[in-house]
Design brief:
MeTrfase_dom; Rossmann fold; 10 helices; methyltransferase; single chain; transferase; Dimethylhistidine N-methyltransferase; binds S-adenosylmethionine; methyltransferase activity; alpha/beta
């Protein structure tokens, strides 16, 4: 595999708080909460890829179906000289549909999961020898800048996977406002957003029968044991995911099956029996409510695609 990826280490400015800082701060909150970005070490990224293949997990295959249908329209709107910047690029798989339709000169993948980012972008560079591939390990919830040496003058930002749903609506608006700063005037943002739907379909997607989402959630505790000084026992916590209708979001929790004290980096935290650590929200939007949110962050809507069952949406937004 050729090592032809331009890797930009943005760590000092854009890495955000360390795992240790995030975990200690999150466990001290009431209720205990950790940000979803902590799921993604190499193992977490691999488990997410397995989630994408579960029959109950409709978002990935539905977004891919939408992109396959819309790719040529997207290429036309983006124009001939567009480059691609993917946020939370993960396996960089969906973007292949865009690369093939758009033939951009350059691609930049941004992800917090460094090892996985390196492997995925190297694979991309090997499969698309005509493409200049860049990668930057950065936290997209922090103010971002495009790395020096990334030549794309007309970047189209691509934010798939409904990762926008991991922010609450206020944070999502602030994130979009940050992206607004990053993009030049007239710059585009192609964003995948999961749609509101029946509780049964939503809850099944986050409680797959094979238990992969449960393993993904519990990997956070295994990661704490691997990377920090901690006696936390993942086996004493249970995965729980449910739809919170009032807030229009799926919530994921790790519930302690007993009263216990856990030690992390010399600090003790008490869990009562049944107490949960809140590990992820995944907000669901209607097409209209998401458009309104994007509008408040300074984006106007150019195009919208959904699937026949209205499970998922892909919006083409432009910096107004
Ligand atoms: C839900 S997965 C989506 C992966 C892929 N884009 C897809 O659509 O299948 C979220 C991706 O974003 C990355 N990620 C999560 N939080 C992040 C953050 N704060 N900064 C940068 N990357 C992040 C994860 O490592 C993971 O690759």
């Amino acid at each position: 595999m050729p090592l032809s990826v331009h890797f930009h280490d943005q760590r000092p400015q854009a890495a955000g708080r360390s795992l240790r800082e995030e975990v200690l701060a999150g466990f001290a909150e009431r209720p205990k909460t950790t940000p979803p970005k902590l799921f993604y070490d190499r193992r977490g990224s691999e488990l997410f890829e397995q989630i994408c293949r579960q029959p109950e997990y409709y978002p990935t295959r539905t977004e891919e179906l939408i992109l396959a249908h819309a790719a040529h329209d997207i290429a036309e709107i983006a124009g001939q000289d567009a480059s691609l910047v993917e946020l939370g690029s993960g396996a960089s798989r969906k973007v292949r549909l865009l690369l093939e339709a758009m033939h951009p000169a350059s691609y930049l993948g941004i992800d917090i999961s460094e090892d996985f980012l390196r492997t995925s972008t190297q694979r991309l560079a090997a499969d698309y020898p005509w493409l200049e591939v860049h990668a930057a390990c950065a936290d997209f919830s922090r103010p971002m800048s495009l790395p020096d040496g990334f030549g794309g003058e007309h970047p189209l930002a691509f934010f798939p996977g409904s990762s926008i749903g991991n922010f609450d609506p206020e944070e999502a608006q602030a994130f979009l406002a940050n992206l607004h700063e990053l993009l030049p005037e007239g710059g585009g943002l192609l964003i995948g957003v999961d749609l509101l739907k029946d509780r049964e379909v939503l809850e099944a997607a986050y409680n797959d029968r094979a238990g992969v989402t449960a393993a993904f959630n519990l990997n956070l505790l295994e990661r704490i044991r691997r990377e920090l000084d901690s006696d936390i026992e993942p086996g004493t916590f249970v995965h729980r995911a449910f739809f919170n209708q009032a807030d229009s979001r799926i919530e994921m929790h790790l519930v302690s099956d007993r009263a216990q004290d856990v030690e992390i980096e010399g600090e003790r935290f008490h869990f009562t029996a049944g107490e949960s650590l809140h590990t992820e929200n995944s907000y669901k939007y209607s097409a209209e409510s998401f458009r309104a949110l994007a509008g408040r962050a300074g984006f106007c809507a150019l195009a919208l695609w959904t699937d026949p069952q209205a499970l998922f949406s892909v919006h083409y937004l432009q910096r107004a």
